[in-house]
Amino acid sequence: MRLTVLGCAGSFPGPESACSAYLVEAEGFRLLIDFGSGSLSALQRYSDMRRVDAILLTHLHCDHMLDACTYVVVRRYDPSGPLPALPVYAPLGAAERIAAAYSTEGEPVDDVYTFYGLQPGTFPIGPLQVTVDRVNHPVETYGVRIEHGGRVLAYSSDTAPCEALLRLAAGADLFLCEASYQDGLANPPDLHLTGGEAGEAATKADVGRLLLTHLVPAWASEASIVEAATAAYAGPVEVVRPGARYDL
Ligand SMILES: [Zn+2]
Ligand SMILES: [Zn+2]
Predict the structure, then answer these.
(1) How far is the centre of ligand 2, averaged over its atoms, from the C-alpha of 10 (Å)?
(2) Ligand nearest to the CA of residue 135, numbered in listed order
(3) Which of 34, 98, 192, 201 sits at a 20 to 30 Å CA gap from 229?
(4) Distance 34 CA to ligand 2 centre (A)
(5) For the whole prediction, is pTM greater than 0.90?
(6) How far apart are the C-alpha atoms of 148 and 143, rounded to whole Å?
(7) How far is the CA of 59 from the centre of ligand 2 (A)?
């Protein structure tokens, strides 16, 4: 299984990165997890933008799904003809949300996407075994656990601390975890993690490696987030960058 970071900026595109988007590949199958603002650009930089086999949107905040609207043009109007409808696993309402953002008439996009509503549980996407569960964020949001060939990748999506996050990440080889907030500040509750909270979750879930993402460079110091995460988790910690690849 290979993870490629396409975008990792939290909440809005940063100076060096698009918003959240992660390409997970196994056995030639390509699953795109989240498709945030600006990430269609990165998808072209690191791969053939037409070669996506399925999309999973963890929630319907703009920074995790807006380029699924832009991508309609790519698939519907390809010079060789329309590309096959793509499975999209997402919270209910994704079809309407993408259609509304794509055109003022809200014309359906079901020629481009076939939508499957997410619910907590385990199911296959291509060769990947995917488990999703609701995490602690103001809208319906799913954390993700992906298993393939005995290896485990877990992704927090956006969340404040919660038990579901620990279950999804339990024993993961790679734990891709958001760290939006700085420790020591009066952060809003039930929204995001601090670096320290990401580190605590990594320790409790006993993961092999912590990859921090969804930092907001304009609002938080990367150094302080890494310091707090490292103080709470003894394993390897790094902040992901666009274009970074991890084989597991
Ligand atoms: Zn976000
Ligand atoms: Zn969000």
Answers:
(1) 9
(2) 2
(3) 34
(4) 11
(5) yes
(6) 17
(7) 7
* 91 vs 116: CA distance, rounded Å: 8
Residue 244 structure tokens:
């970074």
61 alpha carbon to ligand 2 midpoint, in Å?
5
Find the 228 Cα to ligand 1 centroid distance in Å.
20
From the CB of residue 92, how many other CB atoms can be counted at a distance below 10 Å? 14
Q: So what's the pLDDT on residue 12? A: 95
Tokens of 132: 């999703």
**pLDDT-flagged residues of the chain (< 50):** none
Output the CA 175–ligand 1 centroid distance in Å.
17
Strand partners, 133: 143
CA of 142 to the centre of ligand 2 (A): 10
Domain locations in the chain as residue ranges: 2-247
Residue reference for tokens 């359906």: 108
Query: What is the fold of 2-247?
Result: Metallo-beta-lactamase; Chain A (3.60.15)
pLDDT at 106: 86
For residue 141, the CA-to-ligand 2 centroid distance in Å is 8
Q: What is residue 151's predicted lDDT score, i.e. its pLDDT?
A: 98
pLDDT at 219: 87
